[in-house]
Amino acid sequence: MKNRGKSDLKLAWVLLFPSVFLVLLLVAYPMISNIKISFFDLPINPRLDATFVGLKNYTDILTDVEFIKSLGITVLYMILAVAGSTALGLAVAIFFNRPFKFRKAARSLIILSYVTPSISLVFAWKYMFNNGYGVINHLGVDVFHLFDKAPLWFDNPVSSFILVVLFAIWRYFPYAFISFLAILQTVDSSLYEAAEIDGASTWEKFKNVTIPAIMPVLITIITLRSIWLFYMFTDVYLLTNKVNIIGIYLYETAFAFNDLGKAASISVILFIILSIVIIASRKRVKFNGNG
Amino acid sequence: MASSKKNKAARKIGFYTGLIALLVVSLFPFFIMLMTSFKNSKEAVATDPTFFPKDWTFQHYLDIFNPDIFPFLAYFKNSLTVALTAALLSVLIGIFGAYALSKLNFIGKTTINASFYTVYMLSGILLVVPLFKIISGLGLYDTKTALIITMIVQTLPTSIFMLKSYFDTIPDDLEEAAMIDGLNRVQIIFYIIIPLALSGIISVFVYSFMVAWNDYLFASIFLSDSVNFTLPIGLNALFSTPDYIWGRMMAASLITALPVVAMYAISEHFIKGNMTEGGVKG
Q1: Prediction pTM value
Q2: What pLDDT digit, counting tens, does each position of B59-79 carry?
Q3: Which of A22, A116, A233 comes nearest B153 by C-beta?
Q4: CATH fourth-level superfamily of A58-290
């Protein structure tokens, strides 16, 4: 089958045509029109005219304190949530990497938060963290005395930020957990036994056996999760209106402040950032569909 | 001997304590959701919250299935239409694309692979502005079709990559034998590739369904008439209306989660190994 290259070309294009067509029409073309739109002052209303404004959108954005602030919050959110969910996922995977009763059932239950739609989870969290009748405040103040007065979770930027980070860690750690568990199960246990004979401590075993074994998965998880959290919109938007991450900033510029041109210029700036990350990560991330 | 036995027992207790703590953290919001869905409206907002309902009520479940009281069923139907159609088409289109990338040799293969990889990483939020323009331009604003097409594209690169990795494991010899028997490439896809990669195809379907079912972003910019609302946008729109009753919303949230969770449970049962495939983008 190796020498059939020429005769495959036609069939290959027939088979790939729908995919390529859709991706060109609804990803590549929009990406390019983002660049075009970004030079215009374009209101949402199609009856209103677009005005060419040159680089004004870009200079506006790059000198906007809110944009810079939002970028900072996003990076902080991304770092904390990626670190938290990856570390927790790894810890739980190591914890699970031994035979025990109910292992399969427990694994399925832990995955629940990852597979459940955001809207359902967000309602549960909003209810639990409600200032008046939320069970978290009740537990924190009356039962465990963790704080004197419960923070008004959704009413100020700091506690809202803590909340969205906790939510992301809680929701996405199972993804890291499953990936790590899969790779850990392929690690030859004789490596650990050999390390034990050499008198290695738990930490040394972790550092010298576990970490090198999981390295490819670790890099992939960190890269992909960072990208996805950097562009997070839904979870944070539905949970609170006090944390203006970049996805929300873009969305509101377009659909609340009615300025598509400015929003497009944000997309272009973010795309440039993404391209740099992808080019830098291409060689390191082994992509085989196991995101 | 006795002390090592004791040690072992202590370690076992420690392990199961840890496991239970982990499960409590993971499942607590689900527990709260479930219990609140059985509480009456007054108890749900009592300042001294209860873990279990004092008076169990099933009224909220009856209410969400009653179209005169709550539009849940309409939203559910819309979500189902969008997610099922998008997932089916994404898998079907993905199968052909993945087959070409996995089994055929042709010029441009590497480039296409690399572009799909880039698209996979691209987030929908970067495309909202031009997609909004394109969808309006095509006259598809406020239609489920707009959402279906967008969801297909959102999931297609992942579908192709996942399917390709399944197809790669099917040996070429099988195809060569089938060709000698007189099957052409398209027949091979249907008679050999699809049956052999069925578990992979199911997991790709589940992944695509889940992404479409979960989407809030595109539903919120493409849909304006509540007749077309899917669950995420529909339920969120109810959040600040008088229809908003916690018990009812919790019942709705649970039923919203049900299809995806059930699919996962079934597909996990089907699929050997694990389901690390595909991440939730968002």
Answers
A1: 0.91
A2: 999 999 999 988 999 999 999
A3: A22
A4: MetI-like (1.10.3720.10)
